[in-house]
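Kindly inspect what follows.
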Amino acid sequence: MIPKALFDQTVLGFFSPIRPFLEEEGITEVMINGPKQIFIERRGRIEPTQATFANDEDLMSALRNVAQYVGRPLDEERPVLEAHLPDGSRLEAVIPPAAAAGPYVSIRRFYREKLTAERLLALGAWTQEAMHLLQALVACKQNILVAGGTNTGKTSLLNVLSAFCAAEERIVVIEDARELSLQLPHVVRLEAQPGDHKGRGAISIGGLFKATLRMRPDRIVVGEIRGAEALDLVQAMTSGHGGCLSTVHATHARDALGRIETLALMADVGLPLAALRPQVASAINVIVTVSRTPDGKRCVTSISEVLGHDPERGYELQELFDSRIERTPAGEMRYRLQRTHARPRCAPQLEAMGYLTPLPSV
């Protein structure tokens, strides 16, 4: 059996043309459009590079090695690979015939330093007041959804929020591909798996979710909701499994609820939309929205509480924190997060549990 350290070096060796980009601080994405065209994202800006692979076969060899490393198939019948590199970077690859001029590869790098609440504060990603409120909301087991567009820092924020969980809690993490790095003592990690060329052996997030409910979780953390498992999450949230944390691709809080709706309907169980919407509103307590400024800074831009659903008016939300974009004296664009006058509906619960977070008055 090949030692893991040697296997790690072998995988990275195949990616030697781009290895400097995988080690340079400040680069968050490496984008490979075939062997001769490679771009990077450095501090929020996309730049071309002079790096190249020798040919298609060199690039395919690197991808096959990664597929072997993570134990996932990659061939003409299964041309999409979701994986991670030894350093934790997330890799997404599409090869021919699905990518006619490919292979196309995108590698998302994560901060090597473990982001903490205090570090986000230093980066200007949120305010002290917003941090304290979210810490209290997590501690009192509100179900929280982090929403945002691509590459806005959803996973990073989810990692930070999970650090607010109590050390004695049993956390079950479900992901498509390993990205989360929870710094807690009692974490159970489950990862979905693709099937073989005949579909055998596939393990979906939905299947893992059902197994999780029988594993005595104190909390369930789902890396990203992007399929029919949304219905399983909604039903778990409404049946006593409080404190769930997850992310979803959506620009605004209201869009996030609509996205959960759409994904839940993919379960194809015949649940009427009129019956689903009140469940979604009851399941999700708080939506934290993250965005990027024009110069690439990632920030929390709103914290919204879900109050319910009205058949005529739709989802009812109140913003606990909102923001506006402004230019700093140094010329940087930044969201200015500020508290609203709304009082959280769960404020009595927070106070009863002894949290002294400064909360808005009515």
Q: What stands out?
A: The chain has two domains: 4-108, 117-352. The CA atoms of residues 18 and 51 lie 7 Å apart. The first strand starts at residue 27 and ends at 33. The chain is about 30% helix and 25% strand.
